[in-house]
Amino acid sequence: MGITTSGSPGKGATTTLLSVVLDRRATESLARQLYLRIRDLTLSGQLTAGTRLPSTRRLAGDLGISRTVTLAAYDQLVVEGYLEARRGSGQYVRALNRTLKTRVRLGTPAKHVAPEADALAPRGRPFDPDAPPSTLFPTRVWARLMGRGWRLDGQAAVGLDQWAGLASLRAAIAEHLRALQGLECTSEHVAITAGNADALQIITRALTSRDAQIWVEDPGHVGARRTLAREGLKVVPVPVDAEGLDITVGRRLAPRARFALVTPSRQFPSGVPLSLSRRTALIDWAHESGAVVIADDYDSELRFSGRPMASLSSLDTRGDAVLTVGSFSKITFPGLRLGYVAGSPSLIDRLARARAREGAPVATGAQPALAEFIGGGGLSKHLRNLRRQITQWRHALTAALRERLGDAVKILPQEVGMHLTITLSDAVTSRLSDIEIAALAAARGLNLDPLSSHAVATPAHQGFLLGYAAWDEARLVAGVEALAHLLEDCDRIPASR
Amino acid sequence: MGITTSGSPGKGATTTLLSVVLDRRATESLARQLYLRIRDLTLSGQLTAGTRLPSTRRLAGDLGISRTVTLAAYDQLVVEGYLEARRGSGQYVRALNRTLKTRVRLGTPAKHVAPEADALAPRGRPFDPDAPPSTLFPTRVWARLMGRGWRLDGQAAVGLDQWAGLASLRAAIAEHLRALQGLECTSEHVAITAGNADALQIITRALTSRDAQIWVEDPGHVGARRTLAREGLKVVPVPVDAEGLDITVGRRLAPRARFALVTPSRQFPSGVPLSLSRRTALIDWAHESGAVVIADDYDSELRFSGRPMASLSSLDTRGDAVLTVGSFSKITFPGLRLGYVAGSPSLIDRLARARAREGAPVATGAQPALAEFIGGGGLSKHLRNLRRQITQWRHALTAALRERLGDAVKILPQEVGMHLTITLSDAVTSRLSDIEIAALAAARGLNLDPLSSHAVATPAHQGFLLGYAAWDEARLVAGVEALAHLLEDCDRIPASR
């Protein structure tokens, strides 16, 4: 199949697409056929990045088809990222599949280099694991609580001495943690944060000097590593195996580390819970060396099955070796930016002092409302609704993955949370890495979070974290469909590994 | 005057104070006499830190005076930081005058080393320049707007795509900046921030890589330097003279700097406005070198007299060399944590993308209410009230300083803002540096912000920034009184410079 271009080849050239042949008797619609032909031309490299396509009107005339057909085909190509529409100027072939082409040409992909951040799909597209279920959030109830909370608590909220957060919210969160995690907790054990990154910042600023070491899980949260490095900590990646963080290796690599950051309930991103023997080994090390364990039991509000293990803080008989961090933004809406650190009153006091030194308290605007939301039962009700709804979405996603992707992926078991972890078969990864697939998927409006991107050492598995809490069944199924198309396209690349 | 102590000397010993002699015929009250005697004993070192004082009842019995007298004297000593009251255990001599003693003993004070941050007085004590006038904030009006704003704007506020902030607030701030600073500004020119530190973070993350250079004013804002250094920028202090930042020196020190951070209206902390010729020289440099000037016209909402100079952005004919930053937390309440960056739409878009990469939007909780507060005229009304009230407080502070401190300090002229800048006479600084005085003052419940602490090179002046926006006349006058006492005490130290 050839194409005709006018002007200089490559950037800025306009194609006529006169060679495209459509079959009016085929079962596939004309729009679908046109979409597939143009997609093939871009994937094969016959249409190069920057090439301008004929207008929908002209192409319709050239091919003798209705403009509705050309519009539908172009729309789909734009949505999937093959084309980009420039206002008043027409449709152009996007440059975003360059990673794929480079891979094909060079044969040796830069396996663990994350794609250009700016090239990533916008946040909030399927399957962004950070996209929260804000559509389920009871905005009207919240609007009422915002007013009510401020009428009750406004004097405190405008004060300058809220370095540990509003007393009402600290008390409500203490009660929440007693009920949820069985922590022995009063408001003195709780400091309010603006979320987990803020918690890591204030903990490191309060309890350490620059160049102190911190164990982090490998693979583990990229954002947390970045935050800690910015704070001047020496991040020591410690491998995760089937029982979670390997304490023996941690002791060997950095016996005198000041901190260890762990996700004990469900290791991020592997999903493995930290075994009981590892939990006691971790606490033993912390007691011996005077280290502080920062435990992030993320998604613990969203348990579907199974029973939680003894929490790290319940194993901490000395009482000052564990700080538990958590955020409410994920289970409410991303702009809430409120979370907590729970720990011994003396540690909490040091965090508040550090906050005062920095001179900037956590924003108090939503603190009174959140106190009311938790204390008045609104959060529990919301969580029940959330669990019911996202369970349905999770089932829909699982079914679609099994049906459309079959053996290409493996779905790991999960008991809590708002994302599935899937790993890719060797047949897929022999052609493209998960990071390369994510870069391609970004151009098609999917936000895939590659497992490899969280690893420092060579990852054991390649795959994706698939968030499912922010979209209904139809969008999840459409997302799986787009992913399936993408993997089919990848199948055309010869295996090279 | 001798004293008797039981137990081991120093920490934990209890004194009897039997040597204290009071004069019943003196014009000074017995309570005042007792207060002065004990104060002298601590200042002279005869009462050492950690020494426990006799109970008010016992001392009253020992000295044959009423317990009301001992209670009043102890209270005053506790308020002024000479003693500390430990619950259920009595009164102890505080260790916080160790800086003064060290100075007297060693003769060569560590002039530019800030005192231990933990030893500072709690935030919000007079004359903390960061303490905002929250008592004047209309909390009830705000409570209503919190509910109303969320009813209007809740759907946007819970969304995931608020990387530049809520559209309603961006539009309201654009209008505010058009009216206030004459900026040509629409919502596309505005991104919401959590305040100025957050603005510096997101600007550097969006527009630069690590190790880029930034000009900062010397003296200048300590917190800003710390934030920039944490972000991995190379901070280049450029001296400030009577016309503000010295552009010629900046060009010599770091001609290819990526940024310059300036406070053009009123240089912080010197109070000097950036002259017009310096403004044009700064913009010329930015245009030549491709640098971005970050302009912080702090306190510009609170102009009492004079006329603002042509803003840097109005001189930026190219339109993309200046980012103006500002915060609303200072003129409302510290927990608001909302501010803005204003600049060209393309720069603002890059900030929003950087925010999306970081994955954490600015908290949206108070954004709808602030949009209503600004757009509905609430902010203007509040600012009128604020200007009227703090003008009174400023007059009270100025009068008290003149009356009680006379030639020991010089009050610099000011046209805007919520703090006075005073410099100390040579007679004072020959004995103690401003940083040492601030450390002593912290023990007496004063929060003095020493000019020297903002300088990198040797400061031209020693003195203090005295905030006056958070206290009524009585507390300001009492604060000046305490400062006067402190300087009188310092007079007893032999001059050594």
Percent helix of chain A, as a range, is 40-55%
**Rg over C-alpha atoms of chain A, rounded to the nearest angstrom:** 26 Å
Oligomer: homodimer
Protein chain pair with the most extensive contact, residues per chain: A-B, 60 and 60 residues
The residue ranges of chain A in which pLDDT falls below 50 over 5 or more consecutive positions are 1-11, 96-121
Strand order of the largest sheet of chain A: 5-12-11-10-9-6-7-8
Overall SS class of chain A:
alpha/beta
The biggest sheet of chain A, with number of strands, parallel, antiparallel or mixed sense and barrel status, is:
8 strands, mixed
The overall average pLDDT of chain A, rounded, is 85
Distance between the termini of chain A: 30 Å
How much of the sequence lies in strands of chain A comes to: 5-15%
Q: Assign an overall shape of chain A.
A: globular
Q: How many individual β-strands of chain A?
A: 16
Helix segment tally of chain A:
17
Short description:
Two copies of one chain form a homodimer. With 497 residues, chain A is α/β, with parallel strands linked by helices. The first copy, chain A, is 42% helix and 13% strand.
Structure report:
Two copies of one chain form a homodimer. Chain A is α/β, with parallel strands linked by helices. In chain A, 42% of the residues lie in helices and 13% in strands. Chain A is built from 17 helices and 16 strands. Chain A has helices at residues 30-43, 56-63, 67-79, 98-106, 139-157, 167-181, 196-207, 222-230, 247-253, 276-289, 312-315, 345-358, 367-375, 378-405, 426-429, 434-443, 473-491; strands at residues 5-6, 14-15, 83-86, 90-93, 190-193, 213-218, 234-241, 244-245, 259-262, 292-296, 322-327, 339-342, 409-411, 419-424, 449-450, 463-467. In chain A, the strands form four sheets. The first copy, chain A, has an eight-stranded mixed β-sheet, sandwiched between helices. Chain A has a four-stranded antiparallel β-sheet with strand order 13-14-16-15. In chain A, strands 1-2 form a two-stranded antiparallel sheet. The model of chain A is unreliable at 1-11 and 96-121 (pLDDT under 50). Chains A and B meet through helix 5 and helix 12 of A and helix 5 and helix 12 of B.
